[in-house]
Predict the structure.
Amino acid sequence: MKRLYCFFLICLTVLCLPGCASMNPPISRQDFLLDTIVSVTLYDTHSQDILNGCMDVCRELDALFSPTKEGSDVYRINHAGGRPVAVDARTAELIRKSLEVSQLTSGAFDITIAPLVDLWDFKSQFPRVPSQHQIDEALSLVDYRAVQVEGNTVTLTNPKASIDLGGIAKGYIADRMRDYLLENGCQSAILDLGGNVYAMGKRTDGNNWTIGIRSPFDTQSQIGTLTVSDRSVVTSGPYERYFEVDGKRYHHILDPDTGYPVENGLASVTILSDQSTMGDALSTACFVLGPSEGEQLIQSLDQIDALFITDSRDIFSTGDLDFHKNS
Ligand code: ADP
Ligand code: MG
């Protein structure tokens, strides 16, 4: 049921307007990876091998970054008791980029959030609100400065610390899938990793892509559309994973200062960028920072724009976005 629901939401994401279908229809494939539905649609090639190869890139990186698959790089780092761990070069690169975003956001984005993610356990069938004592204990392990990367070796200087790449991995994987497609001569494609979209090139009719932005107030409908070419479009919102207790919603984006789900008046943040790695991390970070600090951060960065939607339904953006609100 959950998978069907995800699929429906993903179908909402990319609007292919009339004229998009050229003489040769696009080829497409959907797989359940990264704990979501990953969809690849290629418009200017009809090679099943390229389509499958692109999905293989996703599967291979999922196997490195998964915190739960025994033997993955992240699993080995988290179970090393503080000893140095040799990892794949791509894992080292992704962790390095995560630490850069932590520095840029003064720790609003922090991959050592893992003990808190485990404690809240949003995937549990019977989730519950942790006690303050448990939150304090997990919080004491959250500090990105405990992660050291030298070459392809990663060390957690606090042996009880652990990492979770859930706020950035989909973006990094989208970038590597894009690279694979470009290397194989495909330039017009839509990569959709559970709503983390990369719109490659332009449509085959030369027009830009139209990407639907999900309404944070009714996640089965769109609040509007963004028209883009060659851009990553990534949204973070409290509706992806959450549970409710006594009428209160607890969602999966956590404040590394308090240990609780972020509550700052933001309903969702969408980041547009060339690199989806940055887009994914910044969407999570801006959601933590809130509307005002988030906007300031994005304005300080070149070639990156954001669309903010607040709980009071205000919509504002940095830069000149081609956004159209649905009536
Ligand atoms: P999604 O992956 O659902 O599209 P995000 O990209 O915003 O949404 O990532 C949310 C995930 O990031 C959480 O499920 C958790 O694994 C991780 N996370 C939660 N809070 C933080 C944080 N403050 N910094 C870094 N990662 C976080
Ligand atoms: Mg993110």
Summary: Confidence is low (pLDDT under 50) at residues 1-12, 16-22. DSSP finds nine helices and 17 strands in the chain. Residues 48-65 form the longest helix (18 residues). The pocket of adenosine-5'-diphosphate (ligand 1) is lined by residues 109-111, 113, 117, 164, 166-167, 170, 196, 236, 240-241, 252-254, 256, 280, 283-284, 288 (CB under 6 Å).
